[in-house]
Amino acid sequence: MIWSKEETLPREEIEKIQLERLKETVHRVYERVPAYARKMDEAGVRPEDIRELSDLSRLPFVTKQDMRDNYPFGLFAVDKDELVRIHASSGTTGKPTVVGYTRGDLETWTECVSRIACMGGASSKDVAQICFGYGMFTGALGLHYGLENIGAAIVPSSTGNSQKQIMYMQDFETSLLVATPSYALRLAEVAREMGVEPERDLKVKIALVGSELLTDAMREEMHKYWGKDLLITSNYGMSELMGPGVSGECTEHCGMHINEDYFIPEIIDPATGDVLPAGEKGELVITCIKKEGLPLIRYRTKDITRLFYDKCKCGRTFCRMENLSGRSDDMLKIRGVNVFPSQIEEVILSVEELGPHYEIILEREGYLDKLTVKVELAQVTDSFSVLERITATVKNKLKVILGLDAKVMLESPNTLQRFEGKAKRVKDLRSK
Amino acid sequence: MFAKQLTVFIENRTGRLSEVLDVLKENKVNILSLSLADTTEFGLLRLIVDNAALGKDKLTQKGFSSLLSDVSIIKIPHKVGSLQKLLKTIDENGVNIEYMYGLSIESDEAYVVLKASDVNKIDAILNENGIKTISCEELGKI
Questions:
Q1: B65–A382: do the CB atoms touch at under 8 Å?
Q2: Measured between alpha carbons, how far is A108 from A112 in angstroms, rounded to an integer?
Q3: Residues A131-157: tens digit of each pLDDT
Q4: Element (H, E) at A243
Q5: Considering only alpha carbons, which residue of chain B is nearest residue A372?
Q6: B58-A159-A83 Cα angle (round to 5)
Q7: Are residues B60 and B82 in the same domain?
Q8: Is there a contact between B65 and A377 if contact means CB atoms under 8 Å apart?
Q9: What kind of architecture, by CATH, is found in domain A1-325?
Protein backbone atom coordinates (compact mmCIF):
# COMPACT_ATOMS: atom_id res chain seq x y z
CA MET A 1 0.00 0.00 0.00
CA ILE A 2 1.16 3.54 -0.78
CA TRP A 3 0.46 5.76 2.21
CA SER A 4 0.52 9.25 0.68
CA LYS A 5 -0.30 10.70 -2.73
CA GLU A 6 2.95 12.71 -2.64
CA GLU A 7 4.90 9.48 -3.08
CA THR A 8 3.76 9.12 -6.67
CA LEU A 9 3.94 12.74 -7.85
CA PRO A 10 5.60 13.43 -11.20
CA ARG A 11 9.22 14.63 -10.96
CA GLU A 12 8.37 18.26 -11.91
CA GLU A 13 5.89 18.51 -9.08
CA ILE A 14 8.30 17.00 -6.57
CA GLU A 15 10.90 19.54 -7.65
CA LYS A 16 8.39 22.37 -7.39
CA ILE A 17 7.63 21.44 -3.79
CA GLN A 18 11.33 21.02 -3.05
CA LEU A 19 12.29 24.44 -4.41
CA GLU A 20 9.51 26.23 -2.57
CA ARG A 21 10.37 24.54 0.73
CA LEU A 22 14.11 24.94 0.25
CA LYS A 23 13.79 28.71 -0.27
CA GLU A 24 11.58 29.05 2.76
CA THR A 25 13.95 26.99 4.93
CA VAL A 26 17.07 28.87 3.85
CA HIS A 27 15.44 32.25 4.56
CA ARG A 28 14.27 31.06 7.95
CA VAL A 29 17.58 29.63 9.14
CA TYR A 30 19.48 32.67 7.87
CA GLU A 31 17.28 34.88 10.02
CA ARG A 32 17.04 32.70 13.07
CA VAL A 33 20.29 30.76 13.41
CA PRO A 34 23.37 32.99 13.81
CA ALA A 35 25.74 30.06 13.23
CA TYR A 36 24.13 29.44 9.80
CA ALA A 37 24.10 33.10 8.88
CA ARG A 38 27.82 33.27 9.65
CA LYS A 39 28.59 30.19 7.56
CA MET A 40 26.56 31.52 4.63
CA ASP A 41 28.20 34.94 4.87
CA GLU A 42 31.61 33.28 4.83
CA ALA A 43 30.61 31.32 1.73
CA GLY A 44 29.33 34.54 0.14
CA VAL A 45 25.83 33.26 -0.45
CA ARG A 46 22.59 34.96 0.57
CA PRO A 47 19.10 33.45 0.87
CA GLU A 48 17.99 35.35 -2.27
CA ASP A 49 20.69 33.53 -4.27
CA ILE A 50 18.70 30.29 -4.02
CA ARG A 51 16.53 30.51 -7.13
CA GLU A 52 16.73 26.99 -8.49
CA LEU A 53 17.34 23.58 -6.98
CA SER A 54 20.82 23.52 -8.47
CA ASP A 55 21.69 26.56 -6.33
CA LEU A 56 21.63 24.23 -3.35
CA SER A 57 25.27 23.36 -4.08
CA ARG A 58 26.27 26.97 -3.30
CA LEU A 59 25.32 26.50 0.35
CA PRO A 60 27.93 25.41 2.90
CA PHE A 61 27.87 21.92 4.42
CA VAL A 62 26.90 21.16 7.98
CA THR A 63 28.82 18.41 9.76
CA LYS A 64 28.63 16.56 13.02
CA GLN A 65 31.36 18.89 14.26
CA ASP A 66 29.05 21.88 13.73
CA MET A 67 26.51 20.17 15.94
CA ARG A 68 29.10 19.61 18.64
CA ASP A 69 30.36 23.19 18.40
CA ASN A 70 26.82 24.45 18.88
CA TYR A 71 25.88 22.02 21.64
CA PRO A 72 23.16 21.79 22.78
CA PHE A 73 20.68 24.13 21.04
CA GLY A 74 22.84 26.46 18.93
CA LEU A 75 21.59 25.23 15.54
CA PHE A 76 17.91 25.22 16.50
CA ALA A 77 15.65 27.53 14.52
CA VAL A 78 12.93 27.84 17.16
CA ASP A 79 12.79 28.95 20.79
CA LYS A 80 13.06 26.21 23.35
CA ASP A 81 9.41 26.89 24.31
CA GLU A 82 8.28 25.56 20.97
CA LEU A 83 10.00 22.20 21.40
CA VAL A 84 7.89 19.28 22.52
CA ARG A 85 10.55 16.57 22.42
CA ILE A 86 14.32 16.31 22.75
CA HIS A 87 16.40 13.30 21.69
CA ALA A 88 20.15 12.78 21.64
CA SER A 89 22.57 10.46 19.91
CA SER A 90 24.67 8.13 21.99
CA GLY A 91 27.72 10.40 21.82
CA THR A 92 30.34 7.68 22.10
CA THR A 93 32.99 10.25 21.30
CA GLY A 94 32.50 13.32 23.46
CA LYS A 95 29.26 15.26 23.80
CA PRO A 96 26.13 13.75 22.32
CA THR A 97 24.37 15.47 19.44
CA VAL A 98 21.06 16.91 20.54
CA VAL A 99 17.98 17.11 18.36
CA GLY A 100 14.67 18.84 19.12
CA TYR A 101 11.19 18.55 17.66
CA THR A 102 8.27 20.97 17.53
CA ARG A 103 4.74 19.61 17.41
CA GLY A 104 4.85 20.09 13.65
CA ASP A 105 8.10 18.11 13.45
CA LEU A 106 6.53 15.19 15.28
CA GLU A 107 3.68 15.21 12.76
CA THR A 108 6.18 15.22 9.90
CA TRP A 109 8.11 12.38 11.51
CA THR A 110 4.98 10.31 11.98
CA GLU A 111 4.02 10.90 8.35
CA CYS A 112 7.47 9.88 7.06
CA VAL A 113 7.60 6.71 9.12
CA SER A 114 4.02 5.80 8.18
CA ARG A 115 5.14 5.85 4.57
CA ILE A 116 8.19 3.67 5.07
CA ALA A 117 6.23 1.21 7.22
CA CYS A 118 3.74 0.79 4.37
CA MET A 119 6.61 0.46 1.87
CA GLY A 120 7.90 -2.42 3.96
CA GLY A 121 4.54 -4.19 3.81
CA ALA A 122 3.05 -3.09 7.14
CA SER A 123 -0.67 -2.49 7.54
CA SER A 124 -3.28 -1.79 10.22
CA LYS A 125 -3.64 -5.55 10.71
CA ASP A 126 -0.14 -5.95 12.08
CA VAL A 127 0.93 -6.53 15.64
CA ALA A 128 4.23 -4.68 15.66
CA GLN A 129 6.80 -5.50 18.30
CA ILE A 130 9.39 -2.76 18.62
CA CYS A 131 12.66 -4.22 19.83
CA PHE A 132 14.66 -1.01 19.62
CA GLY A 133 15.78 0.59 22.86
CA TYR A 134 13.27 3.21 24.01
CA GLY A 135 14.94 6.31 25.35
CA MET A 136 17.12 9.04 23.96
CA PHE A 137 17.66 6.99 20.79
CA THR A 138 15.23 8.06 18.04
CA GLY A 139 14.70 4.61 16.52
CA ALA A 140 12.09 3.19 18.86
CA LEU A 141 9.80 6.20 19.21
CA GLY A 142 10.07 7.03 15.51
CA LEU A 143 8.86 3.59 14.42
CA HIS A 144 6.38 3.59 17.29
CA TYR A 145 4.42 6.66 16.19
CA GLY A 146 4.57 5.80 12.49
CA LEU A 147 3.30 2.26 12.93
CA GLU A 148 0.66 3.37 15.41
CA ASN A 149 -0.47 6.01 12.91
CA ILE A 150 -1.15 3.40 10.22
CA GLY A 151 -3.19 1.45 12.76
CA ALA A 152 -0.86 -1.37 13.73
CA ALA A 153 -1.00 -2.59 17.32
CA ILE A 154 2.26 -1.61 18.97
CA VAL A 155 4.07 -3.85 21.44
CA PRO A 156 6.71 -1.48 22.85
CA SER A 157 8.90 -4.23 24.24
CA SER A 158 12.19 -2.33 23.80
CA THR A 159 15.43 -4.33 24.01
CA GLY A 160 16.55 -6.90 26.53
CA ASN A 161 14.79 -9.70 28.33
CA SER A 162 14.84 -11.73 25.15
CA GLN A 163 12.93 -14.71 26.55
CA LYS A 164 10.03 -12.44 27.43
CA GLN A 165 10.23 -10.95 23.94
CA ILE A 166 9.68 -14.43 22.51
CA MET A 167 6.80 -15.03 24.91
CA TYR A 168 5.12 -11.80 23.70
CA MET A 169 5.62 -12.90 20.11
CA GLN A 170 3.89 -16.19 20.85
CA ASP A 171 1.07 -14.85 23.00
CA PHE A 172 0.29 -11.64 21.08
CA GLU A 173 0.90 -13.26 17.68
CA THR A 174 3.37 -10.58 16.70
CA SER A 175 3.43 -10.26 12.91
CA LEU A 176 5.95 -7.47 12.50
CA LEU A 177 9.33 -7.10 14.12
CA VAL A 178 11.33 -3.90 14.43
CA ALA A 179 14.96 -4.55 15.37
CA THR A 180 18.55 -4.26 14.27
CA PRO A 181 19.54 -7.19 12.03
CA SER A 182 21.86 -8.52 14.72
CA TYR A 183 19.22 -8.39 17.43
CA ALA A 184 16.73 -10.12 15.12
CA LEU A 185 19.25 -12.98 14.83
CA ARG A 186 19.81 -13.02 18.58
CA LEU A 187 16.06 -13.25 19.20
CA ALA A 188 15.85 -16.24 16.87
CA GLU A 189 18.69 -17.93 18.76
CA VAL A 190 16.94 -17.34 22.07
CA ALA A 191 13.70 -18.71 20.63
CA ARG A 192 15.48 -21.90 19.60
CA GLU A 193 17.06 -22.25 23.03
CA MET A 194 13.52 -22.10 24.41
CA GLY A 195 12.39 -24.81 21.99
CA VAL A 196 10.50 -22.33 19.81
CA GLU A 197 11.25 -22.60 16.10
CA PRO A 198 10.74 -19.04 14.75
CA GLU A 199 9.54 -20.05 11.30
CA ARG A 200 7.11 -22.70 12.55
CA ASP A 201 5.96 -21.47 15.94
CA LEU A 202 5.85 -17.70 15.52
CA LYS A 203 3.78 -15.52 13.22
CA VAL A 204 6.37 -12.90 12.36
CA LYS A 205 6.01 -12.18 8.62
CA ILE A 206 7.60 -8.75 8.32
CA ALA A 207 10.84 -7.33 9.65
CA LEU A 208 11.62 -3.63 9.46
CA VAL A 209 15.29 -3.41 10.23
CA GLY A 210 17.48 -0.41 10.69
CA SER A 211 20.23 1.31 12.61
CA GLU A 212 22.81 -1.16 11.23
CA LEU A 213 23.83 -2.07 7.71
CA LEU A 214 21.73 -4.78 6.14
CA THR A 215 24.06 -6.54 3.74
CA ASP A 216 22.72 -9.19 1.36
CA ALA A 217 24.57 -11.82 3.37
CA MET A 218 22.94 -10.63 6.58
CA ARG A 219 19.54 -10.72 4.91
CA GLU A 220 20.17 -14.33 3.89
CA GLU A 221 21.24 -15.19 7.41
CA MET A 222 18.01 -13.71 8.75
CA HIS A 223 16.04 -15.86 6.31
CA LYS A 224 17.87 -18.93 7.62
CA TYR A 225 16.58 -18.30 11.10
CA TRP A 226 13.19 -16.71 10.46
CA GLY A 227 12.19 -18.51 7.28
CA LYS A 228 12.52 -17.68 3.62
CA ASP A 229 9.12 -15.99 3.48
CA LEU A 230 9.98 -13.30 6.00
CA LEU A 231 9.66 -9.93 4.27
CA ILE A 232 12.75 -7.99 5.29
CA THR A 233 13.17 -4.34 4.41
CA SER A 234 15.67 -1.88 5.66
CA ASN A 235 14.99 1.73 6.45
CA TYR A 236 17.28 4.64 6.93
CA GLY A 237 17.56 7.75 8.97
CA MET A 238 19.66 9.44 11.57
CA SER A 239 18.70 11.44 14.59
CA GLU A 240 20.32 14.63 13.24
CA LEU A 241 17.92 14.57 10.30
CA MET A 242 14.87 13.32 12.19
CA GLY A 243 15.42 9.69 13.09
CA PRO A 244 14.06 6.78 11.05
CA GLY A 245 11.87 7.85 8.15
CA VAL A 246 14.32 9.54 5.81
CA SER A 247 14.08 6.60 3.43
CA GLY A 248 12.82 3.05 3.31
CA GLU A 249 12.98 0.03 1.10
CA CYS A 250 9.85 -1.03 -0.75
CA THR A 251 8.95 -4.64 -1.46
CA GLU A 252 10.74 -4.50 -4.84
CA HIS A 253 14.05 -4.55 -2.93
CA CYS A 254 15.82 -2.10 -5.20
CA GLY A 255 16.98 0.56 -2.81
CA MET A 256 15.33 2.88 -0.29
CA HIS A 257 12.87 5.57 -1.40
CA ILE A 258 13.76 8.95 0.06
CA ASN A 259 10.87 11.10 1.28
CA GLU A 260 11.81 13.78 -1.19
CA ASP A 261 9.13 16.26 -0.22
CA TYR A 262 10.85 16.50 3.17
CA PHE A 263 14.49 15.81 2.31
CA ILE A 264 16.65 16.74 -0.68
CA PRO A 265 19.45 14.23 -1.25
CA GLU A 266 22.75 14.92 -2.98
CA ILE A 267 25.78 12.72 -3.56
CA ILE A 268 29.17 14.35 -3.21
CA ASP A 269 32.76 13.36 -3.59
CA PRO A 270 33.77 13.15 0.07
CA ALA A 271 37.26 14.44 -0.68
CA THR A 272 36.40 17.52 -2.76
CA GLY A 273 32.80 18.20 -1.76
CA ASP A 274 31.77 18.35 -5.44
CA VAL A 275 28.27 17.17 -6.32
CA LEU A 276 28.32 13.96 -8.35
CA PRO A 277 25.82 13.04 -11.07
CA ALA A 278 22.97 10.58 -10.36
CA GLY A 279 24.12 6.96 -10.26
CA GLU A 280 27.62 7.70 -9.00
CA LYS A 281 28.81 6.49 -5.66
CA GLY A 282 29.72 9.00 -2.97
CA GLU A 283 28.74 10.51 0.34
CA LEU A 284 25.07 11.22 0.94
CA VAL A 285 24.25 14.81 1.86
CA ILE A 286 20.74 15.64 3.04
CA THR A 287 18.90 18.94 3.33
CA CYS A 288 15.81 19.05 5.54
CA ILE A 289 13.18 21.23 3.89
CA LYS A 290 10.24 20.90 6.21
CA LYS A 291 11.80 20.80 9.64
CA GLU A 292 11.03 23.49 12.20
CA GLY A 293 13.18 22.68 15.22
CA LEU A 294 16.45 21.62 13.64
CA PRO A 295 16.41 22.17 9.87
CA LEU A 296 19.89 21.01 8.88
CA ILE A 297 21.04 22.15 5.47
CA ARG A 298 23.44 20.03 3.43
CA TYR A 299 24.20 17.71 6.31
CA ARG A 300 27.07 15.35 5.58
CA THR A 301 25.85 11.90 6.61
CA LYS A 302 29.17 10.10 5.99
CA ASP A 303 27.12 7.28 4.46
CA ILE A 304 28.32 6.00 1.12
CA THR A 305 25.61 5.26 -1.44
CA ARG A 306 24.21 6.05 -4.90
CA LEU A 307 20.93 7.60 -6.04
CA PHE A 308 18.60 6.19 -8.69
CA TYR A 309 15.85 8.23 -10.32
CA ASP A 310 14.42 5.65 -12.72
CA LYS A 311 10.86 4.50 -12.16
CA CYS A 312 10.30 1.86 -9.50
CA LYS A 313 7.88 -1.01 -10.11
CA CYS A 314 6.10 -0.18 -6.85
CA GLY A 315 4.72 3.00 -8.43
CA ARG A 316 6.53 5.47 -6.21
CA THR A 317 8.36 8.27 -7.96
CA PHE A 318 10.62 9.25 -5.07
CA CYS A 319 14.25 8.52 -5.88
CA ARG A 320 15.99 5.55 -4.29
CA MET A 321 19.26 5.36 -2.44
CA GLU A 322 21.17 2.13 -2.72
CA ASN A 323 21.28 0.07 0.47
CA LEU A 324 24.39 1.20 2.27
CA SER A 325 27.63 -0.61 1.63
CA GLY A 326 29.39 1.17 4.46
CA ARG A 327 29.76 4.34 6.42
CA SER A 328 32.88 6.35 5.86
CA ASP A 329 32.98 6.51 9.67
CA ASP A 330 33.17 2.73 9.87
CA MET A 331 35.91 2.39 7.29
CA LEU A 332 39.09 0.92 8.71
CA LYS A 333 42.50 1.58 7.34
CA ILE A 334 44.55 -1.58 7.80
CA ARG A 335 48.09 -1.58 6.51
CA GLY A 336 47.01 1.15 4.12
CA VAL A 337 44.06 -0.83 2.79
CA ASN A 338 40.55 0.57 3.13
CA VAL A 339 38.34 -2.07 4.71
CA PHE A 340 34.66 -1.93 5.53
CA PRO A 341 33.58 -4.26 8.34
CA SER A 342 30.69 -5.30 6.07
CA GLN A 343 33.22 -6.92 3.70
CA ILE A 344 34.51 -9.09 6.52
CA GLU A 345 30.95 -9.85 7.57
CA GLU A 346 30.14 -11.09 4.11
CA VAL A 347 33.05 -13.53 4.19
CA ILE A 348 31.98 -14.91 7.55
CA LEU A 349 28.35 -15.30 6.57
CA SER A 350 29.38 -17.19 3.45
CA VAL A 351 30.90 -20.01 5.53
CA GLU A 352 28.12 -22.36 6.46
CA GLU A 353 29.74 -23.81 9.58
CA LEU A 354 30.01 -20.40 11.19
CA GLY A 355 27.39 -18.44 13.10
CA PRO A 356 26.55 -14.83 12.20
CA HIS A 357 28.37 -13.25 15.13
CA TYR A 358 31.93 -12.05 14.90
CA GLU A 359 34.48 -9.65 16.29
CA ILE A 360 37.17 -7.69 14.48
CA ILE A 361 40.25 -6.77 16.49
CA LEU A 362 42.96 -4.42 15.30
CA GLU A 363 46.29 -4.17 17.05
CA ARG A 364 49.66 -2.72 16.26
CA GLU A 365 52.74 -4.89 16.41
CA GLY A 366 55.78 -2.73 15.93
CA TYR A 367 54.89 -0.71 12.83
CA LEU A 368 52.49 -3.25 11.44
CA ASP A 369 48.73 -3.47 11.84
CA LYS A 370 47.47 -6.84 12.91
CA LEU A 371 43.97 -7.97 12.00
CA THR A 372 42.29 -10.66 14.04
CA VAL A 373 38.84 -11.95 13.25
CA LYS A 374 37.02 -13.94 15.89
CA VAL A 375 34.32 -16.17 14.53
CA GLU A 376 31.91 -18.52 16.17
CA LEU A 377 31.22 -22.12 15.25
CA ALA A 378 27.56 -22.80 14.50
CA GLN A 379 28.02 -26.16 16.21
CA VAL A 380 30.77 -28.27 17.69
CA THR A 381 32.38 -30.94 15.57
CA ASP A 382 34.69 -33.74 16.62
CA SER A 383 36.64 -33.46 13.41
CA PHE A 384 39.87 -31.53 13.51
CA SER A 385 40.11 -31.33 9.76
CA VAL A 386 36.74 -29.58 9.55
CA LEU A 387 38.00 -26.93 11.96
CA GLU A 388 41.19 -26.46 10.01
CA ARG A 389 39.27 -26.19 6.77
CA ILE A 390 36.95 -23.52 8.22
CA THR A 391 39.91 -21.46 9.44
CA ALA A 392 41.70 -21.79 6.12
CA THR A 393 38.56 -20.88 4.15
CA VAL A 394 37.99 -17.68 6.12
CA LYS A 395 41.68 -16.75 5.83
CA ASN A 396 41.77 -17.33 2.10
CA LYS A 397 38.58 -15.43 1.41
CA LEU A 398 39.75 -12.46 3.47
CA LYS A 399 43.02 -12.54 1.57
CA VAL A 400 41.23 -12.55 -1.78
CA ILE A 401 38.71 -9.84 -0.89
CA LEU A 402 40.83 -7.52 1.25
CA GLY A 403 44.32 -8.48 0.17
CA LEU A 404 45.25 -8.82 3.82
CA ASP A 405 46.47 -11.63 6.02
CA ALA A 406 44.28 -12.06 9.05
CA LYS A 407 44.47 -14.22 12.09
CA VAL A 408 41.28 -16.22 12.39
CA MET A 409 40.19 -17.42 15.79
CA LEU A 410 37.47 -19.99 16.20
CA GLU A 411 35.26 -19.62 19.24
CA SER A 412 32.70 -21.96 20.78
CA PRO A 413 29.05 -21.51 19.81
CA ASN A 414 27.24 -18.80 21.78
CA THR A 415 30.31 -17.21 23.30
CA LEU A 416 30.85 -13.97 21.42
CA GLN A 417 29.02 -10.90 22.66
CA ARG A 418 25.44 -10.35 21.46
CA PHE A 419 24.01 -6.89 20.92
CA GLU A 420 20.51 -5.57 21.46
CA GLY A 421 21.09 -2.21 19.86
CA LYS A 422 23.67 -1.25 17.30
CA ALA A 423 26.26 -4.01 17.20
CA LYS A 424 29.81 -2.96 18.09
CA ARG A 425 31.94 -5.58 16.42
CA VAL A 426 35.17 -3.69 15.84
CA LYS A 427 37.79 -3.27 18.53
CA ASP A 428 40.50 -0.94 17.34
CA LEU A 429 43.29 -1.21 19.88
CA ARG A 430 45.88 0.61 17.77
CA SER A 431 47.05 3.77 19.47
CA LYS A 432 45.89 6.65 17.33
CA MET B 1 28.73 -51.68 19.50
CA PHE B 2 29.23 -47.94 19.57
CA ALA B 3 30.38 -45.88 22.46
CA LYS B 4 29.53 -42.22 22.99
CA GLN B 5 32.49 -39.93 22.86
CA LEU B 6 32.19 -36.51 24.44
CA THR B 7 33.95 -33.83 22.40
CA VAL B 8 34.53 -30.35 23.80
CA PHE B 9 35.73 -27.43 21.70
CA ILE B 10 38.08 -25.27 23.71
CA GLU B 11 39.69 -21.97 22.82
CA ASN B 12 43.37 -21.97 23.66
CA ARG B 13 43.23 -19.72 26.68
CA THR B 14 44.85 -20.27 30.03
CA GLY B 15 42.65 -22.30 32.30
CA ARG B 16 40.09 -23.39 29.71
CA LEU B 17 41.01 -27.07 29.93
CA SER B 18 40.93 -27.16 33.71
CA GLU B 19 37.54 -25.44 33.70
CA VAL B 20 36.19 -28.34 31.67
CA LEU B 21 37.77 -30.85 34.01
CA ASP B 22 36.33 -28.98 37.01
CA VAL B 23 32.81 -29.42 35.67
CA LEU B 24 33.37 -33.15 35.16
CA LYS B 25 34.86 -33.56 38.61
CA GLU B 26 32.04 -31.68 40.34
CA ASN B 27 29.55 -34.02 38.73
CA LYS B 28 31.57 -37.17 39.36
CA VAL B 29 31.99 -37.93 35.69
CA ASN B 30 34.94 -40.27 35.43
CA ILE B 31 37.37 -39.92 32.53
CA LEU B 32 38.47 -43.26 31.07
CA SER B 33 40.49 -41.98 28.15
CA LEU B 34 41.15 -38.77 26.36
CA SER B 35 42.88 -37.19 23.44
CA LEU B 36 43.66 -33.53 23.01
CA ALA B 37 44.34 -32.20 19.56
CA ASP B 38 45.31 -28.59 19.34
CA THR B 39 46.68 -25.73 17.31
CA THR B 40 47.81 -22.42 18.76
CA GLU B 41 44.26 -21.13 18.48
CA PHE B 42 41.97 -23.91 19.52
CA GLY B 43 41.81 -27.45 20.75
CA LEU B 44 39.47 -30.42 20.56
CA LEU B 45 39.22 -32.41 23.73
CA ARG B 46 37.86 -35.88 23.02
CA LEU B 47 36.82 -37.82 26.05
CA ILE B 48 35.63 -41.30 26.87
CA VAL B 49 33.79 -40.98 30.18
CA ASP B 50 31.52 -43.24 32.20
CA ASN B 51 28.48 -40.99 31.63
CA ALA B 52 28.79 -38.94 28.47
CA ALA B 53 25.20 -37.64 28.47
CA LEU B 54 25.52 -36.27 31.99
CA GLY B 55 28.87 -34.73 31.12
CA LYS B 56 27.38 -32.98 28.09
CA ASP B 57 24.42 -31.62 30.06
CA LYS B 58 26.57 -30.22 32.81
CA LEU B 59 29.05 -28.69 30.38
CA THR B 60 26.21 -27.03 28.48
CA GLN B 61 24.89 -25.54 31.72
CA LYS B 62 28.32 -24.04 32.31
CA GLY B 63 28.43 -22.55 28.85
CA PHE B 64 30.69 -25.08 27.12
CA SER B 65 29.74 -26.43 23.75
CA SER B 66 30.13 -30.14 23.34
CA LEU B 67 29.05 -32.95 21.10
CA LEU B 68 28.34 -36.65 21.47
CA SER B 69 29.55 -38.82 18.63
CA ASP B 70 29.69 -42.55 17.91
CA VAL B 71 33.08 -44.18 18.18
CA SER B 72 34.22 -47.79 18.54
CA ILE B 73 36.18 -48.87 21.60
CA ILE B 74 38.04 -51.92 20.45
CA LYS B 75 39.66 -54.51 22.61
CA ILE B 76 42.96 -55.86 21.29
CA PRO B 77 45.72 -58.00 22.74
CA HIS B 78 48.40 -55.90 24.43
CA LYS B 79 51.27 -57.07 22.29
CA VAL B 80 53.36 -56.05 19.32
CA GLY B 81 51.54 -56.13 15.99
CA SER B 82 47.97 -56.34 17.20
CA LEU B 83 47.10 -52.73 16.33
CA GLN B 84 48.70 -53.13 12.92
CA LYS B 85 46.59 -56.25 12.36
CA LEU B 86 43.40 -54.42 13.35
CA LEU B 87 44.10 -51.53 11.01
CA LYS B 88 44.88 -53.89 8.18
CA THR B 89 41.47 -55.51 8.59
CA ILE B 90 39.76 -52.13 8.55
CA ASP B 91 41.77 -50.93 5.55
CA GLU B 92 40.99 -54.00 3.54
CA ASN B 93 37.32 -53.31 3.99
CA GLY B 94 37.64 -49.77 2.65
CA VAL B 95 36.83 -47.77 5.75
CA ASN B 96 38.82 -44.65 6.62
CA ILE B 97 39.90 -43.83 10.11
CA GLU B 98 39.34 -40.20 11.06
CA TYR B 99 41.22 -40.37 14.32
CA MET B 100 42.29 -42.82 16.97
CA TYR B 101 43.71 -42.85 20.45
CA GLY B 102 44.54 -45.62 22.84
CA LEU B 103 44.58 -46.76 26.38
CA SER B 104 45.96 -49.84 28.00
CA ILE B 105 44.53 -50.83 31.29
CA GLU B 106 45.62 -54.40 31.80
CA SER B 107 48.91 -56.08 31.12
CA ASP B 108 47.55 -58.37 28.42
CA GLU B 109 44.70 -56.31 26.97
CA ALA B 110 44.59 -52.85 25.43
CA TYR B 111 41.83 -50.68 24.05
CA VAL B 112 41.83 -48.23 21.19
CA VAL B 113 39.18 -45.61 20.56
CA LEU B 114 38.58 -45.26 16.87
CA LYS B 115 36.40 -42.93 14.81
CA ALA B 116 35.67 -44.32 11.37
CA SER B 117 34.37 -42.49 8.32
CA ASP B 118 31.47 -44.93 8.20
CA VAL B 119 30.36 -45.90 11.68
CA ASN B 120 27.85 -48.54 10.65
CA LYS B 121 30.25 -50.27 8.31
CA ILE B 122 33.02 -50.41 10.89
CA ASP B 123 30.69 -52.10 13.34
CA ALA B 124 29.84 -54.79 10.81
CA ILE B 125 33.49 -55.33 9.93
CA LEU B 126 34.51 -55.72 13.53
CA ASN B 127 31.69 -58.18 14.20
CA GLU B 128 32.46 -60.26 11.14
CA ASN B 129 36.10 -60.51 12.17
CA GLY B 130 35.32 -61.42 15.74
CA ILE B 131 36.93 -58.27 17.10
CA LYS B 132 35.47 -57.21 20.43
CA THR B 133 34.14 -53.74 21.14
CA ILE B 134 32.88 -52.55 24.47
CA SER B 135 30.77 -49.74 25.87
CA CYS B 136 31.88 -46.87 28.07
CA GLU B 137 30.00 -48.41 30.99
CA GLU B 138 31.85 -51.72 30.64
CA LEU B 139 35.13 -49.90 30.25
CA GLY B 140 34.38 -48.00 33.44
CA LYS B 141 34.05 -51.22 35.38
CA ILE B 142 37.43 -52.59 34.39
A1: no
A2: 6
A3: 998 989 899 999 999 999 999 999 999
A4: strand A243-249
A5: B41
A6: 165
A7: no
A8: yes
A9: 3-Layer(aba) Sandwich (3.40)
